[in-house]
Amino acid sequence: MLRRRQIPDQTDPGHCPLCSRRLQRSYGPHRGKVLDKVQPPADADRQQAGAGGVLGEEYVVRSKPDGYTIYVGQGSGHDVVMPHLQKMPFNPLKDITPVARLSIHSIVICVSGKSPINSMKDLIAYANKGNKITAAVSTAAGSVDLVMRAISKRANIPITTVPFAGGAESTTALAGGHLTIGGGHPSEVMPHLKAGRFKAIGVALDKRDPVIPKVPTLKEQGIDVATWGSVKGVAVPNGTPPEIIEYIASTLKKISEDPAYKKAMASIYQPIDYLNTKDWTAFLQREYKDYGDLIKELDIKI
């Protein structure tokens, strides 16, 4: 019986830890018998975070492939963006094995609740009048920064991005009225939207985010920008037996259909968008290429 699992995730606090904690709480009722001879490690149930997800994923890369250490947060940014910009301590496409996708966490473009801007059309008109556009982004060369730079290039308006030390700081700066626009994942911006401190003017996905279905995509507003935001994929160490991978993937599918888990994920504004192992592996390759192409187009270097 698989009783417990280590689930390393991304930086804490953040949206990947929120996702992995909901996953841990829902895992128990869906466990089944598999490889009874395997015993859990003494430090099971531990979460390993740090360095924007790099340390957590590297921990899994170096772990024993027995099914007791899984990674939540594959495809969320550091492993599909950073390899195009700098040397990584592991190869995210070769040194770890994809299992399934749980969710896609969009990037929402926001302005202050007091701003005269109500749409991307308004933003472009505002910039074309000679007004300076500053954008709060969570980190330099991160997923939000890429979106803002892509908007700048494809809408042909100057945008100066201002990096902060994470999503919490960048959203706080925007709420304080210090910048024109900002971006963040729904779990970061929804409290501000509900309180009226922010207005959402666009979503940088290829389709509307079910968490905020009334907000149009950037493409719907004539700006050819769509990225994958922060994807919540699950992975295991290379060498993990196929039957364990299948067991974890099928268990995750059951969890994704569980009403309690759906409610828990809805409470943190993360839509469930499950993919099986084959489809998730193909999607990860596409996501990696898409980000690489965008970074090359924008000529981003760090």
Helix and strand arrangement:
Layout: H1 15-27, H2 54-61, E1 71-74, E2 96-105, E3 108-112, H3 120-128, E4 133-137, H4 143-154, E5 159-163, H5 167-175, E6 181-184, H6 186-195, E7 198-203, E8 230-237, H7 242-256, H8 259-267, E9 272-275, H9 277-298
Parallel strand pairs: 4-5, 4-6
Antiparallel strand pairs: 1-8, 2-8, 2-9, 3-6, 3-7
Helix pairs in contact: 1-8
Describe this structure in words.
By secondary structure, the protein is α+β, with helices and mostly antiparallel strands. It is built from nine helices and nine strands. It has helices at residues 15-27, 54-61, 120-128, 143-154, 167-175, 186-195, 242-256, 259-267, 277-298; strands at residues 71-74, 96-105, 108-112, 133-137, 159-163, 181-184, 198-203, 230-237, 272-275. The strands form two sheets. The protein has a five-stranded mixed sheet, sandwiched between helices. The longest helix is centred in the C-terminal third of the chain and has 22 residues, at 277-298. The termini are far apart.
Could you write a compact summary of the structure shown?
This protein is an alpha+beta fold and 302 residues long.
Question: Which properties best describe this structure?
Answer:
302 residues; alpha+beta; D-Maltodextrin-Binding Protein, domain 2; 2 domains; five-stranded mixed beta sheet; four-stranded antiparallel beta sheet; 9 helices; 35% helix
In helices, the fraction of residues equals 25-40%
Strand content: 15-25%
Oligomer state of the chains in this structure = single chain
Number of domains: 2
